[in-house]
Amino acid sequence: MTEAPLTSATSNPKSSHYAIIVAGGSGTRMQSAVPKQFLLLNGLPVLMHTLNAFYSCQPQPNLILVLHEDYHSYWMHLCADHQFQLPYQLVGGGDSRYQSVKNALSLVPDDALVAVHDAVRPLISTDIIEEAYRQAAVQGAVVVAVKSRDSIRQVKDERSQSLLRDEIYLVQTPQTFKAGLLKEAYKHPYHDAFTDDASVAEQAGHFIHIVEGSYQNFKITFPEDIAIAELLFNKKASL
Amino acid sequence: MTEAPLTSATSNPKSSHYAIIVAGGSGTRMQSAVPKQFLLLNGLPVLMHTLNAFYSCQPQPNLILVLHEDYHSYWMHLCADHQFQLPYQLVGGGDSRYQSVKNALSLVPDDALVAVHDAVRPLISTDIIEEAYRQAAVQGAVVVAVKSRDSIRQVKDERSQSLLRDEIYLVQTPQTFKAGLLKEAYKHPYHDAFTDDASVAEQAGHFIHIVEGSYQNFKITFPEDIAIAELLFNKKASL
User: Fold this and answer.
1) Is B156 close to A167, i.e. CB distance below 8 A?
2) Model-level pTM?
3) Contact across the interface for A153 and B224, Cβ inside 8 Å
4) Who contacts B192 (Cβ-Cβ below 8 Å, separation ≥6)?
């Protein structure tokens, strides 16, 4: 299920902070388009930006990258090409996001704090990551989220109903937890309602608290998103 | 309440399609930042792009622009500078969006179709506008909306609860109606839940149908949004 660390450096044994970076793509063996985490953003694969953001945090978390085994050799080639040498542990992904995170959690001690983050959100800021760890230490389970700019409707049976916009949050990552709490929650069998880690923790009876995120921390989804991410990255760099 | 058309051309008397373009900013007399609808996007004010998009539709709608009177002379200067000469009617805005739309609706015949659109969504495509008119002719009340890319949480009393993402739509504009239906709905007194036109129609007992929108049709809200809109605009133009 898990693999030995593939990088020469070892993770920081003193840190009680962990970050699981979840990269998508489940064994299509590169037949289709290159998964978005490998696309170049300012010349560097998206996933490397994401790992860099977590590596820059204080305290520095132990990094665990979950990636389907079909992509491991491709990723190692990318790392060599870009001389990417952060310390992290590489774990094989499961058939689902649920299984992937569960695999990675087996490497996290119960008394740690653990952040789970989408590989394709490279614009996450260290400030927000750090605030999520701080809040998780107090609250147990927090998600980074932003209020919706748009009105919200819920559609059921082809009819739609407006919801109160002020009550609605769009949930991003990281989603950060006391590790023991999340590991215990992941013992529940998979359920269709598990769209993210917070929903797993919620199903186990925990309240989910919200840490204010940023609209810039969006998920690279469409072809034009790379250009938008580059624009925002360069703006941030010029500040 | 309303003003005579300020442009030399008259609106198209044969069209039964109307579009109300709602520009924000309520009488701050330019003390604060320039309202977003006047910012330059590829050298042209955002609002002119928006009016152009509706003017390009078939059938061509009669355009009504709602703008607070404090900005009328500034707008006319902009029109002169940019030689902007589309036919439209200019209406003074009210103290609220609700009142602004109500003002404009008084110029729309009951048997028309009317689209209400945010001035700061300049990237709306003619295809989507036209589809919304077609659906409104059948269904009576439709909104353009997209599914959320993110998980959704509803927060009440400091606790959050996940909602089923597949049921949630982020509502954009245009919101398009049989005019008689919307005018009748706007006779109801203002209510805090009226965040958009669909919620006014819903309060009056109508079902709101959804027309698939585009993520590109976003609301210019933050300073970086102008650069993102330019990027998307130029991509569209190069296709």
Assistant:
1) yes
2) 0.88
3) no
4) none
